[in-house]
Specification:
By secondary structure, the protein is mostly helical. It is 65% helix and 0% strand. The protein has one helix and no strands. 0% of the residues are buried.
């Protein structure tokens, strides 16, 4: 990766964009995981909610 060729402003914009996308994906994964936990009778002893 040629980080030196990328301006700092666009780099920070890219980081903020990807952190937003990651948080959206994480919330979606959490929602799907909680739905799976509710729908299936499986033990949640190994998972910290």
């Amino acid at each position: 990766m040629a980080v030196s060729s990328i301006p700092i402003s666009s780099l920070s914009n890219t980081i903020s964009y990807y952190s937003k996308v990651e948080s959206d994906a994480a919330s979606r994964i959490n929602r799907a995981f909680s739905y799976i936990c509710r729908s299936k009778p499986f033990k949640r002893t190994h998972w910290r909610a």
